[in-house]
Design goal:
There is one protein chain. The chain has about 600 residues and is α/β, with parallel strands linked by helices. The chain folds into 4 domains: about 150 residues, Glycogen Phosphorylase B (Rossmann fold), CATH 3.40.50.2000; about 150 residues, Rossmann fold; about 160 residues, Spore Coat Polysaccharide Biosynthesis Protein SpsA, Chain A (Alpha-Beta Complex), CATH 3.90.550; about 80 residues, no CATH class. Strands 14, 15, 16, 17, 18, 19, 20, 21, 24 and 25 form a 10-stranded mixed beta sheet that branches. Helix 7 links the parallel strand 12 and strand 13. Helix 1 crosses helix 10, helix 1 packs parallel to helix 14 and helix 6 packs across helix 9. The N and C termini lie far apart (about 65 Å).
Length: about 600
């Protein structure tokens, strides 16, 4: 088998979360690996403390790299993903250089500063073997202001991925009326200060999401709102989560983006993907990105902006433009973007161009959620697995609103009298439409990285037929670092042709007849919100375990009744360092010892009652 070329993609801009460059770098890395790991061995260069998907190959930046960057000869190509990067290879490694914009030319920086910045870009162009840009506007800009040395410039639009959370309903600020929305780093170049004037003569609220690097500009926005008498309807909640961004975009009347400095403009396309009317400035790349599917502020005069918004909303609803807007947004995909980047890598390395369509077909998967009285968790749990092709809730005849809520969320609901955990889950597995199964307890949550890693595995299925997934546990709201829970892992993603639950009544496990793999990303398990919850669970488990032992003809003795409960306390509190978890560790040790004692008490009762 021919060895794949190793290349480095610089994603060091991920050191600034909640920014456009952060999401660009992360999505580029994840999708290169997902769609093209058969062609290249990708390594991603970034800062040691950057939160980066653990399943990708990361190269940590050293302090010397900024001054003199030399990497081992095994790497054939370096891709710098930002025009102002300080990391340019000094050896003969091939160099692909991506330019997002020259927006510093359109600021109030001094001519000397602009010339210095322009010269820094020129030096990297001189070193580059290939140049990519993210819009035709940027291409025209660099052709006008820089010497390209007759080098070809490739226009590669950014991809857009919108994670959907249809059941999320708790943003940090929830508008009381209809509202307009925008999101981005809250800086002058985004021109958010012109938006409060759009609230005149209507009842709209305005939500501006994003980090606040300059407090003075936030004050400018609020002064503008006060000028128009709408300060009470302007809200700046600061950084927002992916769930919150989805909620605000989905529920807004319109998405506004009056930026005067964009190389591409990702947020408007994300809003378009959800079919929202989008209102843009005519500056830099935005007309190219929005096309005829967007509405435009030709200037920022108050009356003009108000008329554009009013007429645009009327047109949007009267002409039912939602479908047209969604279709426009679909041209901006990471499948297309990564295919174009890979073609640039291949040309630069003098490799044959792979003209075959990329594999965008993943294995279909059914997500299974077992429930009993989970009305507080079920909606969030279903949101966690929206990426699955089928969702099954297997319910043990809940007495609360679990089933009612689940049925409203358009998932398949099965009800079955509970006998034990293994048979309950195996029953649901048999009803699934797909061979690949993912099991999620209602009190578990997936990290974003785990979702990405599962998707990557489903796109690139190899020999493994089941995967162990690490799990981090929280008890009474506190993270448990020790107490025997620190190495917790479970098989939850598997192919049912080769794997099933093992038949244990409690502490059931998936047994796989083929090769198993390990994922690096983890679940969060928010188990037991009160002492009473945990004690009830321990009681339930002890009853099932006692029955299981009885069926195996295990006879209780003094070792079981006296020594094992005490050892269980010592194991959780001392041997696995539960004392370092403080009161939480003591409670876990105490209740596990109690559960062991109850197990053998109930086992004795089985023998007594069946004499």
């Amino acid at each position: 088998m021919r060895k794949k070329p190793s290349i480095i993609v610089d994603v060091e801009r991920m050191k600034h979360p909640f920014t456009g460059l952060y999401f660009y770098c992360k999505n580029l890395a994840v999708n290169l690996e997902k769609y093209h790991s058969d062609k290249f061995d990708f390594h991603f260069f970034t800062y040691p403390k950057v939160k980066f998907p653990g399943f990708l190959k990361k190269i940590n930046r050293s302090q010397l790299d900024k001054f003199y960057l030399i990497k081992p000869p095994k790497y054939k190509l370096w891709h710098a993903t930002w025009q102002d990067t300080k990391y340019v290879p000094q050896n003969h490694m091939k160099f692909v250089y991506t330019i997002h914009d020259l927006n510093f030319l359109y600021t109030d920086k001094s001519p000397a500063k602009k010339a210095k910045l322009l010269n820094a870009v020129q030096e990297k162009i001189d070193r580059a073997d290939a140049i990519t840009v993210i819009s035709n506007f940027v291409k025209e800009d660099i052709e006008k202001h820089l010497d390209l040395k007759n080098k070809k410039v490739y226009v590669i639009y950014n991809g857009v991925e919108v994670n959907e959370y249809p059941n999320f309903d708790s943003p940090k600020y929830k508008p009381k009326n209809k509202f307009l929305f925008t999101v981005g780093t809250v800086l002058y170049k985004k021109h958010f200060h012109v938006l409060p004037r759009l609230l005149v003569d209507n009842d709209f609220e305005l939500v501006i999401g994003g980090i606040h690097p300059e407090k003075s500009y936030v004050e400018d926005i609020l002064k503008e709102a006060e000028k128009y008498g709408v300060k009470d309807r302007v809200h700046l909640p600061g950084p927002i989560t992916d769930q919150e961004k989805y909620w605000y975009t989905k529920n807004s009347e319109a998405f506004l983006f009056p930026s005067i400095s964009e190389g591409f403009g990702l947020p408007p396309i994300e809003a378009m993907r959800l079919g929202k009317p989008v209102f843009l400035s005519t500056s830099t790349s935005l007309p190219e990105v929005g096309g005829d599917a967007a509405y435009y502020f030709q200037n920022f005069e108050a009356k003009h902006m108000q008329e554009v918004l009013k007429n645009g909303l009327t047109d949007y609803y009267q002409n039912n433009r939602k479908h047209e807007i969604i279709e426009w947004s679909k041209q901006f995909s990471w499948e297309a973007a990564t295919k174009q980047y890979v073609e640039v890598y291949q040309r630069t390395l003098n490799l044959p161009i792979d003209n075959q369509p990329i594999n965008i077909n993943k294995e279909k998967v059914t997500a299974i959620i077992p429930t009993f009285n989970e009305e507080k968790n079920i909606a969030d749990a279903i949101d966690q697995v929206q990426w699955a092709d089928e969702i099954i809730v297997i319910d043990s005849f809940s007495t609360d609103k679990t089933v009612e809520i689940a049925k409203k969320l358009n998932v398949k609901v099965l009800q079955r009298t509970f006998d034990n955990f293994s048979s309950q889950k195996n029953y649901a597995i048999d009803q699934a439409s797909n061979d690949w199964i993912f099991v999620l307890d209602a009190d578990e949550r997936l990290t974003d990285d785990l979702k990405l890693e599962i998707e990557d595995k489903l796109y690139n299925v190899k020999d493994e037929k089941a995967f162990w997934i690490p799990r981090k546990n929280y008890f009474l709201g506190k993270k448990v670092r020790f107490s025997g829970w620190q190495n917790d892992k479970v098989i939850r993603l598997f192919n049912r042709k080769y794997a099933k639950y093992n038949g244990k009544l409690v502490h059931e496990e998936v047994k796989c007849t083929q090769k198993t793999g390990f994922l690096k990303s983890y679940f969060q398990h928010f188990t037991y919100h009160s002492y009473k919850d945990y004690k009830q669970k321990i009681d339930s488990y002890s009853s099932l375990k006692a029955l299981e032992l009885y069926q195996k003809n295990v006879k209780p003795n003094i070792y079981h009744s006296f020594i094992k409960p005490r050892y269980r306390f010592v194991y959780h509190y001392f041997i696995t360092f539960g004392f370092l978890d403080g009161t939480t560790g003591y409670t876990i040790a105490k209740l596990n010892a109690y559960g062991m004692r109850e197990r053998y008490k109930k086992l004795k009762k089985h023998y007594k009652n069946n004499k």
